[in-house]
Amino acid sequence: MDQDREGQRPPDLRGVPTHLLLRRLGRVFANGSGEASTFAMSAQVERIDVFLSHSWATPSILKTVALMYRSNVSVALILSTSVLIVIQVLRRIIDEDFLRIKTLPFYFPGGGEPVHVHLSVNVLVYCCIFAIALIYGAEIGRCCFRYSMYFLDKCCIHQTDPVKKMQGIHQLGDILAHSKRMVVLWQPEYLSRLWCVWELAAFSSLSEGSVEFLPLKLPLFVIGLFAFHFGATVGVVFVGPRLLYSKRFAELAGELLPPAGQLTLNLFLLFLFNFLVFSWAGTFFWKFCIWHMDDRRDLIRELKHFKVEDAKCFLPADRVFMLSSIEGWFGSVEHFEALVQEDLSNNVASSLHHSGPVPFSMLIVGALPHAFIFGDALLDSSNYYDLESFLRFLALCLSLTFCTDALSVDIGLFLAEWSRGAEGRSWRWTYFGPICVASVFAALTALPACFMNRTLPLWIVLVLIFVLLSTTMLLHWPRRTSESWTLPSLSRGSMRVASISSISHEGSITATSRGEGDSQEMQCKTSQVLSCCGSTYPIIEEGEEGSASRDHLGADCAKGHIVKLDDIYNSEDPASVETASCN
User: Fold this and answer.
1) Which bin fits 548, alpha (ψ -120 to 50), beta or left (φ > 0)?
2) What angle do CA 366, 368, 370 make, to 5 degrees?
3) Which has the closest alpha carbon to 483: 69, 136, 49, 62?
4) In the chain, what percentage of residues exceed pLDDT 70?
5) CA–CA distance, 169 with 151 (Å, rounded to integer)
6) H or E element in which residue 183 lies
7) How far is 490 from 431, CA to CA, in rounded Å?
8) What is the rounded CA–CA span in Å between residue 59 and residue 318?
9) What is the CA radius of gyration of the chain?
10) pLDDT value for 311
11) Does the pLDDT value for residue 517 go beyond 60?
C-alpha cells in the first residue's frame, strides 16, 4: 500500500511554506473564504510535511499563536542564547561593564561576602529578541533552515474555480496519504465538526505518519508564564536589595537570631513576598489548570460518544459529500463511528497519558527569564568569590529554571483534577484554588532562594537540588518533551480510498480504489458523470472548459451505483432515493 501511495501522487499536490502562513500575524486564518491571492501562496510539492487540521470556528488568534510557537520557538531559543553568549564575550574583550547600569549587593544572614547582581539591559535584550523571533522566526529561519510545507485547505485548494475546487476536495484521500504528519489545532469545538473528525480518522487509518494534537490554550499559557516571570524576576532584583537582602536586615537578623532562626525567618519572608507576587496571577494559573484538565477529559468523552448525526457541517452539501465519502472509505457510517469511538479514542487516551498534562519543554520556555537573568549572572565571574558560592548560585539557577514551574504546574493540575469530584467542582474552589496555586508557586520559589543563605549548609543545598531535579525528572521522563501529543496510526482494516487519475471533458473518468494491500483501477464512462467511488464532481459542459452545470451526479463505482445528488438535496428522506447501475 505504501508503494501505491508513493507512486500515485495527486496531479496538483500543493503546500504553503511556514513563513507565508504566519505572515501579517496569520491573517490567512481570519476566515475560511479564499481567493486567487490565497491560492497563489501555495506551490506544487512532491510531499506535504504537515497537514493542518482545524476548525474555522476557532478564533484565528489562537491558531496563529499556536503555529508561531510550534514553528518559531527553536529559532527564538537559538537567537536569544546566541546573543547571551556574544554579550558575555564582548564583556571580556571590550569592557566588563558593557550594557551594565548598576551593581546591587545581596546580603544574606550568616555572614560571608554579598552576592553582587549587576543590573543591565541584558535580560531585556534577551527577552525582546526571544519575543521578536517567536513572532517572525519563520521569516528569519527560512534563510538558514529548510521550512516546512503545510497543507491548508484555503490556500491549497482552488476557491474561485468551482471545478478545480471540487477536484481538490475529492483528492483529499491522496493528499492525506502524501502527508508526513497531521497537526490538529485542537479546541473543544474541533470534534463537533464532521469535516475535522473525518480528516483525523482518515489520516490515522490511511497514513503511517503521526498525528499531533496541539492544544491551543497551551502556547498562550506559556507566553503568559514567560511574561509573568520576566516582570517578577526584574521586580525581585530591584526590590530584594532594599528589603529582604539589605545589609542592615542581614546584620540585625544575625544579632537577634541563632542560625536556625535566621534561616527560618529568611524562608518565611521569602514565602510571604513570593505569595504576594504570585497571588495576583493565581487566578490566571488556576483557570488554566481547570480549563486544561476539563478539556482533556472532554476530548476523550466526546470521542467515545461521537455520532455522525450530531456532528455539524457548514453547508448541507458538505454533509452529503461527507456521508458519501464515509461510506466509500469506511464501508458504513456505523463502522466509521465505531472506529472513532473505540480505536481513535483509545489511541488519543494512550497518547495523553504518555505525554503528560503539560510538556516539560513548554514549562522551560515559560521559565526562560529565570534562565536569562541567572545564566547571565552565572557566566559573570565577579558574582561569586569561591567554589561554594558558585555551587549555591548554580543550584539556585537550576532549580528555578527546571524545577519550580514544572512541579508547581503539576501540583496545580492535580488539584484541578481532584477538586472536580463526582458531582462537579464546588464553588469554594473558585476562591480556594487560586490561593493554593499561589502558595505552591511561592513555596517552590522561596526554597531555592534560600540556597544562597550560608546558614544552610552546602551539603543540604546539594541534597535539596538533587531531590528537586530527580522529582522533576521522574514526573516528566520518559514522557515526550514536545509541545504536542503524538497519536499512532489506526489499523487500516478494509478501508478503501479512491483517487481520480484523469477526467475528460466528455465525462470519462479513470479512478483508482485502494484498500489494504491491493489496488484496483476502474472507469466510469457515463457522459453525465464526473464522480467515482464516493467522490462527487460538477459536470463540465462540453466545449466550456472550467464551467459547471446545475446538475450533479455522484457515483460509487466500487458498488456499481449512481446517485443523483440533486435528488438527495431535494428529498426529505435521502435514503429513499433510487440508484442506477454504473455503465
Assistant:
1) beta
2) 115
3) 69
4) 73
5) 12
6) strand 179-186
7) 43
8) 22
9) 30
10) 87
11) no
**Residue 477 contacts residue 428 (beta carbons within 8 Å):** no
Phi first, then psi: give them for residue 100, nearest 5 degrees: -85, 150
What was the pLDDT predicted at 467? 95
8 neighbors 128 (Cβ within 8 angstroms)? no
Quick check: 538 and 529 in contact, CB under 8 A?
Answer: no
Q: Are 273 and 464 in contact (CB under 8 A)?
A: no
* Residue 523: closest CA among 504, 542, 538: 504
Grid cell digits, residue 366 = 515559560
Using DSSP's 3-state secondary structure scheme, residue 17 falls into strand
Sort strands 485-487 and 210-215 into parallel, antiparallel or unpaired: antiparallel
Beta strands at 149-151 and 14-17: parallel, antiparallel or unpaired: antiparallel
- The burial class, CB within 10 Å (0-12 / 13-18 / 19+), for 147 is middle
Sign of the C-alpha dihedral, residues 94, 101, 88, 381?
Answer: positive
Whether residue 217 contacts residue 59, with contact meaning beta carbons closer than 8 Å, is answered with no
pTM score: 0.76
Q: How far is CA 506 from the centre of its chain?
A: 47
- pLDDT value at 552 more than 80: no
**Of the candidate ranges 39-43, 170-174, 416-420, the one whose mean pLDDT is the lowest:** 170-174
d(CA 440, CA 397): 19
User: Would you list the DSSP string of 198-217?
Assistant: HHHHHHHHH-SSEEEEEETH
| Residue type, position 237, single letter | V
Question: Identity (one letter) of the amino acid at 437?
Answer: V
Q: What is the pLDDT of residues 110-158, one digit of tens each?
A: 556 666 666 667 788 888 999 999 999 888 877 777 788 999 988 988 8
> CA separation (Å) from 516 to 207, 344, 416?
12, 19, 44
Give yes or no for a contact between 108 and 115, defined as CB atoms under 8 angstroms apart.
Answer: yes
Q: Put the strands of the sheet holding 561-564 in their side by side order.
A: 536-538, 552-556, 561-564, 580-581
Cα–Cα distance for residue pair 233/575, rounded to 1 Å? 65
CA-CA distance, 559 to 578, in Å (whole number)?
14
How is residue 173 written as a grid cell? 484521500
Find where cell 503521526 sits: 210
Q: Are 145 and 290 in contact (CB under 8 A)?
A: no
Quote the cell numbers at residue 438. 499561589
Residue-wise pLDDT tens digits, 31-84: 878 888 888 899 888 889 999 999 888 889 999 999 999 999 999 999 999 988
Give the torsion through C-alpha atoms of 364, 228, 427, 294, to 10 deg. -40
CA distances from 291 to 358, 365, 411 (A): 13, 21, 15
**CA 433 to chain CA centroid, nearest Å:** 26
- Cα torsion through 514, 516, 520, 521, rounded to 10: 10
Edge-to-edge strands, sheet with 14-17: 43-44, 14-17, 149-151, 48-53, 179-186, 210-215, 485-487
Question: Is residue 478 reached through a cis peptide bond, with omega within 30 degrees of 0 on the bond before it?
Answer: yes
Instruction: Kindly report the backbone phi and psi dihedral angles of residue 273, in degrees, each rounded to the nearest multiple of 5, phi listed first.
Output: -65, -45
